[in-house]
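User: Can you model how zinc ion sits in this protein?
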Amino acid sequence: MLILGIESSCDETAAAVVEDCTKLRSSVIASQAMEHRLYGGVVPELASRRHCENILAVTQQALDEADITPQELDGIAVTYTPGLIGALLVGVSFAKGLAFSTGKPLIPVHHMTGHIAANYLAHPELKPPYLCLVVSGGHTMLAEVTSYTTFRILGTTRDDAAGECFDKCARVLGYPYPGGVQIDKASQLGDCKRYQLPRPKVNGSELDFSFSGLKTAVINMVHHAEQKGETIEKESMAASLQKTVSEILTEKTEIAMHQTGYTTVAMAGGVSANSGLRAEMEQMCRKNGYTLYMPPLSLCGDNAGMIACQGSYNFLAGITADETLNAYASGTAIGEMLTIS
Ligand code: KG4
Ligand code: ZN
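Assistant: Here's the modeled complex, given as structure tokens:
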């Protein structure tokens, strides 16, 4: 079974071909990050335009590298939610056109389930059910992966996502977009005990997250230091932030593991590339005897291999769409995605 995946939810135009769910035959990513860096973050209108310009060549290259023609595909999977609406629409419209012209099934994929599926590409032995910590630029979730296509959200963020917290703090510290990876690099040179940062709690909900207070604390500490003519030790602030975020995420994951009784846990999303978080999770899993799965760094960020992989499982479960498929910026939780499709 050969599935083409198309991803255009943010600033990466990507296409990939996956064989039999987990074999990555090709993966092409055209990143716009350096262009958006000029503006300190993603400019939605610019992202949509670049997707329009790149999507055909990126898809052709993915087919060429996989050495197949569109006629040999069994289905065309596309990210339809969540993300920047203009950006999503490019991928969805393109995939609809390709599915219509080739007569192949169209398969809708929720971006966050794609991130989870990145683990299957690297670790085909991973099988549901298990628990997954999903951490990206827009989402922070603890999800129970009950099957390849069904998910139960146990906890989520009440405000900012972990990635957003990294990105905003990186910006105030003067690091360029995308900030998360800069915080990671700077942390290697800093002292993580130098700054005491708050650990916001969500009253009455042990598995929910809140990162806006932490973000505001970092921003305030930087501004106050500037006003007093003092200098912040940037690397140590980065290291303190990374340590705090990693500990919060790992502690909540540990509680969820205890509560659910799972012994297998995975990580997914752009922030799962963070070296501090990976180390913290490894330590927690070693202590408890849990099996931990993490995507390789190449599959943590946005890519289309993960969309083709999840698309393959959706296809096998009968989750397909017709030409009325629309894109949705937000508001579609993972569990709902499956009732929609
Ligand atoms: O999953 P992703 O590529 O896109 C979304 O679906 O949002 O995640 C992007 C997020 C950004 O916030 C980025 O700064 C963060 O992942 N990120 C990192 C690292 N690499 C990417 N955050 C911390 N450490 C990293 N090494
Ligand atoms: Zn993503």
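A couple of observations from the model: The chain has a mean pLDDT of 95. Strands lie at 2-7, 12-19, 23-31, 75-81, 106-110, 130-135, 140-147, 150-156, 264-268, 291-293.
User: Helpful, thanks.
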